[in-house]
Specification:
The chain is an alpha+beta fold and 347 residues long. The protein is built from seven helices and 17 strands. Strands 5, 6, 7, 8, 9, 12, 13, 16 and 17 form a nine-stranded mixed β-sheet that branches. The protein has a four-stranded antiparallel β-sheet with strand order 1-4-2-3. The termini are far apart.
Length: 347
């Protein structure tokens, strides 16, 4: 019987696979071994998948650089196959502005910006590929037109580049922090100051891979600065206008959670997935869901046109779900005479 490895069988993403290391594969790195066996996946994609804990060798989790031994059994559930570019889909878009160089979109909540594992369809890039003939390529094949991004459950203004020169002009503004971004957030709790600056560095969470955290003095943390101002107060809730001066991942969400007022329905940082009508009206029996996504909206973006330099400002009105929550709070959680005192100073 030959010790040669079996040829790759055609499997579909989501299927469980077990591969046995042959004699001539001894000493191979785990990522190289899988790339040789699973021709439909790139080594880079497999290395990332291994790093997430998706592959086991024997009874233990594998690492990309692990050197294999003869007869070891490598087990994994096949991940989604990366696509070279988004598939055009006829998804409606709320276009705020368009010219020959760029587009401004009011992104709907729940829409992923670009393809990722588990989200190959229904993305903003798929909608862009359908609606626009020309998009920049500077962000890579999976991100045509994408200059910056919003989290899946964050709605609001996002700008798109139609060609690479416009992309460079827009990207430079985000990198040099000359853009002006304004977000609207509904938060749990009563923020004690009417306005303040949160100046706390942000880095990867020490235990949860998908999260970020305040990491003072950590080598992987980066400075993060958010100015906020109370827009409206309610009993147990606060509406906030946030102007981030930096653009760190999850910045506003992490900063507001840090000061004790996490964003409503922020699954990651408030540990609560839904807001019910009963919670607002103090009626336990009413479990109708008012909101099931984080109450964060990119309301306004001010930039310079990437080609002419002319000032541009885009405003996305609050979506219906956030307007509905605001109406409930105003009706059932008013704060009489809520003009609060002003305190200054940094946290």
């Amino acid at each position: 019987m030959s010790d040669a490895p079996e040829p790759e069988r055609i499997h579909e993403p989501g299927q469980s696979v077990e591969l046995v290391v042959a004699a001539e594969e001894v000493g191979q790195r785990l990522d190289a071994f899988l790339a040789n066996r699973l021709k439909r996946y790139s080594r880079v994609h497999l290395r990332r998948f291994i790093s997430t804990g998706g592959v086991t060798v024997g009874e233990h989790g594998g690492k990309p650089a692990y050197r294999l031994r003869e007869g070891e059994r490598v087990r994994l559930t096949l991940p989604d196959i990366p696509r070279s570019s988004p598939r055009p889909e006829a998804i409606p878009l709320n276009v705020l502005y368009e010219d020959d160089d760029m587009v401004a979109i009011n992104k709907s909540p729940g829409m992923v910006v670009h393809p990722s594992r588990g989200h190959w369809s229904g993305t903003l890039t798929s909608a862009l590929a359908f609606h626009f003939d020309s998009l920049s390529t500077a962000g890579g094949s999976n991100r045509p037109g994408i200059v910056h991004r919003l989290d899946r459950d964050t709605s609001g203004v996002i700008v798109i580049a139609k060609h690479d020169q416009a992309h460079a002009g827009l990207a430079m503004q985000f990198e040099s922090r000359t853009t002006e971004k304004e977000y609207f957030a509904l938060c749990y709790g009563n923020v004690d100051r009417d306005r303040d600056i949160i100046d706390q560095p942000i880095g990867p969470h020490p235990y949860q891979r998908e999260k970020m955290a305040i990491r003072v003095g950590h080598p992987d943390s980066k400075d993060a600065l958010t100015f906020y101002e109370v827009a409206e107060r309610f009993d147990g809730y606060t509406a906030i206008k946030a102007l981030p001066k930096t653009g760190r991942t999850h910045q506003i969400r992490v900063h507001l959670a840090h000061v004790g007022s996490p964003i409503i329905c922020d699954k990651m940082y408030a540990a609560r997935a839904v807001l019910t009508r009963g919670e607002v009206r103090a009626r336990r029996e009413d479990d109708d869901v008012l909101l099931d996504r984080q109450a964060l909206h990119a309301r306004r973006l001010k930039i310079a046109h990437p080609m002419s330099g002319a000032p541009l400002e885009f405003i996305a009105e609050l979506p219906e779900d956030l307007q509905r929550v605001l109406a409930e709070l105003r009706s059932y959680r008013p704060v009489p005479g809520s003009a609060a005192r002003h305190k200054r100073g940094k946290r």
